[in-house]
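fyi for ur records
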Amino acid sequence: MAENTEISTPAKHSKVSDYIQFAKLRLASLVVFSAVICYIIAAKGDFTWQILGWLTLGGFLVTGASNGFNQIIEKDLDKLMTRTHNRPLPQSRMTVAEGLVFAAIMGITGVLILWIKLNALTGILGLIAMILYSLVYTPLKRKTPFAVFVGAFPGALPPLIGWVGYSNEINVQALIVFAIQFMWQFPHFWAIAWRLNDDYLKAGFKMLPSSGGRDKQSAFQILLYALFLIPVSMLPASFNMVGWFYVTVTLMAGALFAMQAYTLFKKCDNDSASKLMFGSFIYLPVVQLALLIDLYLYFHTFYLPT
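which gave:
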């Protein structure tokens, strides 16, 4: 559910650049990273580059389709916001029919790749993520701040998809990597929503947890979830998945992230929200890479894939 924070500016556009913007490929790369890392962790090195490539391609296509369907549904609302008004659909550089065809092709192809090249359960999870994001989370954004909770589910599915892509089952370890990304979604997204609250309000989006918007209550909930993230991120240690390297790195990352959230609580300003937002972009890959490195260092279960 991570959002694109880039503010659109007038520029020359090619059809290729419009399709890239429609699919939000830069945002998709962040999503696919979680799936790929968790697939490698689940496999403990026992995978082929070919299968990893199929996971990457399928993940990009499913995520791109979700982003595309989101833009189709919000076409008229995107016109109202500074950060989105220059997208292909609001500027009529792409028709709704063209967008639907492109998004449908991406979605169907992506799900089939995950289903056929990895396993059926991975394909089903990809389909669920696409439906939840496009058809449930997207319409809810104008109705209730609860949309953030709903959106946290498809936003946290990529690591689960990666893990299940190898294991072909939803086990405790798969649920743990899902839980970490699920809890991370709240301070991550609310930091973005804090920065973009004025723009969101133009389209009637209710994204911050408090009805007062940028207030102490919203900042307190952001801090609370950042603190909750610390014990949730310790679950791999509780289930003997990791050693001291992961614990040390993740505790340090969690403490720094929580300090940023506390600063936002104290100051309630956009600068603190920006620092928390960028901190969230760093936190998640650091934790996931720490899990990967820990498995290699302490369990020595990796070997070079074929």
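Confidence is low (pLDDT under 50) at residues 6-11, 301-306. thats all i got for now
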